[in-house]
């Protein structure tokens, strides 16, 4: 097939020098005039089709007179020929997002989503008495204007149950095609999934290596045959025996149960088509998904758990089922279904097979659907975007959880502060009505109520540590420590996986005078260093920061909440150290296994190699690398980059050729 003869490929590799190997990826470049046809091939709707297309292309390339060797590769993004250089992953994801509103499903298929008739979502006050639903009997689950006409005279009762005026409910139904009314008049959102073609543009756990693995690959690993030979294992954050015993706050009376084990005829979560058992990779992904959802809900007094609850007395909550399903939806949830917890059928679902079977989109889906169960509606943008895709770039690229957050690293709760937001409801106020309240503050907000950091005298230094939670906007956690004269340095880190907190810190003296602040650092995590003038007691304030313009480029501190840890080092203060905290935390310690501190982390240098790239009929003018950690862009066909912290990073390579055409590919790198 002659039209494939101009297909070329980029092989781009990652060689880790040091502790860990990261992902290997390749992308096929497509000559502009054949782009449409090749893109159609590569946008095949499932992995099998994509693999077949890949092999067909590779075979054509191999047999062409260009003499390129075939390389089998397992982790590459769909090629995207750009008309402009992408500034962010957002542009890569744009075409996918535009498909988000297009769930095509028959009424019969939707009927499978219906809850039993006795299920009552709570009303605008969080109550379930006096519901109108027993009087309503519609023919089928419907959306949009069909829903309005089907509800007919019942529309007012349904609207007022949910706290909307008639006009508001009509407007929601007409502007958000995901909003449905079931046969009993109950509202549910049926959300679109992630197209299979987007699968590899989002972080996955399939490209991670355990830090224990020390193998070093020399040279390019991207020659034929070697790419797929690089065995990659996914390290679980916790022992495998704990996979279904994870609790973020076991003693809470509020429950968010992430059910991966199936329900009735709905199979268990599975990546290997063997739903009866969970292999190591599946368990690792479950654990990491739990970490991500836990961070989104960490500000609240709620137990995010993978363990089936057994004691329901006096508890509010909801179960979300994570199960593969043959439909085009990514997930769905009944509005206000977070209510008296009974252990009954799940009113909320995520379908991993329609979420690229990948950690981040599955986790984002879970947090989003749980948001619906807590009363939250979609956050879109006027005039006609149902799901807002966010703004900003790189590590601090931001999206609202109730919009679509697959394509941005940082997902937070929002009150619609971005330009032209169609929904400015205060997410925390809405969730509070359902019974989800912020955690009691763990660390005092003032010098007078400061908590002493843990301190230990080792290696001639005073080693400090602390951890905590920013639980509401404006929460300040003040820590105190004693130190001698000399340099004091601190590393401030958010949750290890998918932090929501953009940390800010101030160092103060005993009089409250500010000595140093974190300012202008690109990372969500921060460092702080200062030469203390004398032996004394000092204070460190931690809070959540905004960044850029909440209207256009960044976010306010509204959703900049979450878990953090601090490690520090100072000169010894007159040979003694303080080890007793001055106050006892009012919140019992979480049963969450401790987050490893950054002090254990050794920077990892990664080599990216795109030297084998050829573009037919043109020469390559430039290579631009966005390493995904908010550091400066790299250039050249062969680059090295040092990651100074653990995390999963989306690496975007943009190539510009001599005809000013731009090509972009991306992959994820996970650093342990
Ligand atoms: Ca998040
Ligand atoms: Ca706090
Ligand atoms: Ca505080
Ligand atoms: Zn939704």
Mean of residue pLDDT values: 77
Low-pLDDT sequence parts: 1-101, 197-233, 575-598
Largest sheet: 9 strands, mixed
Dominant shape: globular
| Number of β-strand runs | 30
Structure notes:
The chain has helices at 35-42, 47-63, 89-97, 107-111, 144-151, 155-162, 166-175, 280-296, 359-373, 427-434; strands spanning 8-17, 25-29, 80-82, 142-143, 179-181, 187-192, 254-259, 303-305, 316-322, 329-334, 339-340, 348-350, 398-400, 410-412, 451-452, 454-458, 461-470, 476-483, 486-494, 503-508, 514-517, 526-532, 536-544, 562-571, 604-609, 620-626, 634-635, 638-643, 647-657, 662-671. With 672 residues, the chain is of the alpha+beta class. Strands 4, 5, 6, 7, 8, 9, 10, 11 and 12 form a 9-stranded mixed beta sheet that branches. The longest helix is centred in the first third of the chain and has 17 residues, at 47-63. One calcium ion (CA) binds next to helix 8. The site of one calcium ion (CA) has 5 residues, from helix 8.
Task: Outline the secondary-structure elements.
Blueprint: E1 8-17, E2 25-29, H1 35-42, H2 47-63, E3 80-82, H3 89-97, H4 107-111, E4 142-143, H5 144-151, H6 155-162, H7 166-175, E5 179-181, E6 187-192, E7 254-259, H8 280-296, E8 303-305, E9 316-322, E10 329-334, E11 339-340, E12 348-350, H9 359-373, E13 398-400, E14 410-412, H10 427-434, E15 451-452, E16 454-458, E17 461-470, E18 476-483, E19 486-494, E20 503-508, E21 514-517, E22 526-532, E23 536-544, E24 562-571, E25 604-609, E26 620-626, E27 634-635, E28 638-643, E29 647-657, E30 662-671
Parallel strand pairs: 7-8, 7-9, 9-12, 13-14, 15-18
Antiparallel strand pairs: 1-2, 1-25, 3-30, 4-5, 5-6, 6-10, 9-11, 10-12, 16-17, 17-24, 18-23, 19-22, 19-24, 20-21, 20-23, 25-28, 26-27, 26-29, 29-30
Bound molecules: calcium ion (3 copies) and zinc ion (ZN).
């Amino acid at each position: 097939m002659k039209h494939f003869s101009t297909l070329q490929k980029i092989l781009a590799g990652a060689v880790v020098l040091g502790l860990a190997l990261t992902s290997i990826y390749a992308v096929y470049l497509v000559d502009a005039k054949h782009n449409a046809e090749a893109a159609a091939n590569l946008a095949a709707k499932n992995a099998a089709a994509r693999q077949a297309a890949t092999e067909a292309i590779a075979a054509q390339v191999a047999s062409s007179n260009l003499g390129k060797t075939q390389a089998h590769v397992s982790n590459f993004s769909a090629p995207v020929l750009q008309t402009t250089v992408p500034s962010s992953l957002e542009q890569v994801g744009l075409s996918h997002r535009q498909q988000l509103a297009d769930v095509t499903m028959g009424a019969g298929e939707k009927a499978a989503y219906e809850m039993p008739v006795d299920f009552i979502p709570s009303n605008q006050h969080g109550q379930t008495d006096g519901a109108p639903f027993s009087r309503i009997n519609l023919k089928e689950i419907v959306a949009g204007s069909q829903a309005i006409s089907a509800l007919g005279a019942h529309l007012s009762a349904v609207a007022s149950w949910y706290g909307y005026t008639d006009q508001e409910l009509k407007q929601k139904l007409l502007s958000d095609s995901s909003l449905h009314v079931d046969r009993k008049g109950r509202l549910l959102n049926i959300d679109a999934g992630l197209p299979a073609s987007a699968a590899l543009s989002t972080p996955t756990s399939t490209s991670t290596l355990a830090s224990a693995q020390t193998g070093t690959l020399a040279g390019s690993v991207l020659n034929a045959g070697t790419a797929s030979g690089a065995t990659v294992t996914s390290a679980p954050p916790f022992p495998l025996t704990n996979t279904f015993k994870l609790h973020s706050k076991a003693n809470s009376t509020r429950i968010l149960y992430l059910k991966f084990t199936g329900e009735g005829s709905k199979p268990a979560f599975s990546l290997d088509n063997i739903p009866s058992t969970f292999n190591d990779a599946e368990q690792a992904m479950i654990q990491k998904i739990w970490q991500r959802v836990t961070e989104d809900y960490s500000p609240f007094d709620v137990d995010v758990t993978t363990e089936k609850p057994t004691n329901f007395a006096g508890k509010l909550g909801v179960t979300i089922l994570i199960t593969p399903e043959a439909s085009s939806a990514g997930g769905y949830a009944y509005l206000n279904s977070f209510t008296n917890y009974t252990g009954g059928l799940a009113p909320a679902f995520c379908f991993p097979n329609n979420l690229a079977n990948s950690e981040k989109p599955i986790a984002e889906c879970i947090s989003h659907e749980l948001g619906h169960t807590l009363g939250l509606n979609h956050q879109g943008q006027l005039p006609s975007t149902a799901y807002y895709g966010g703004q900003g770039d790189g590590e601090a690229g931001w999206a609202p959880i109730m919009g679509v957050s697959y394509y941005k690293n940082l997902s937070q709760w929002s009150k619609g502060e971005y330009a032209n937001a169609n929904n400015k409801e205060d997410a925390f106020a809405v969730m509070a009505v359902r019974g989800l309240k912020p955690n009691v503050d763990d660390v005092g907000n003032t010098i007078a109520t400061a908590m002493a950091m843990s301190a230990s005298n080792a290696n001639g230094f005073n080693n400090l540590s602390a951890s905590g939670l920013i639980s509401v906007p404006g929460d300040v956690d003040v820590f105190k420590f004693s130190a001698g004269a000399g340099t004091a340095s601190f590393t401030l880190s958010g949750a290890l996986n998918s932090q929501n907190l953009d940390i800010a810190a101030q160092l103060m003296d005993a009089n409250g005078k500010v000595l140093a602040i974190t300012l202008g650092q690109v990372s969500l995590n921060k460092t702080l260093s200062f030469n203390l003038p004398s032996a004394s007691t000092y204070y460190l304030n931690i809070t959540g920061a905004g960044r850029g313009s909440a209207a256009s480029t960044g976010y306010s501190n509204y959703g900049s909440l979450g878990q953090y840890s601090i490690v520090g080092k100072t000169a010894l203060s007159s040979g003694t150290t303080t080890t007793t905290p001055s106050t006892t935390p009012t919140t019992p310690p979480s049963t969450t296994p401790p987050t490893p501190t950054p002090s254990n982390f050794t920077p990892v240098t990664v080599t990216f190699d795109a030297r084998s790239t050829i573009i037919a009929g043109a020469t390559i003018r430039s290579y631009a690398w966005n390493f995904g950690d908010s550091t400066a862009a790299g250039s050249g066909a062969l680059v090295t980059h040092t990651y100074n912290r653990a995390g999963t990073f989306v690496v975007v390579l943009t190539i510009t050729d001599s005809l000013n055409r731009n090509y972009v590919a991306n992959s994820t790198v996970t650093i342990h």
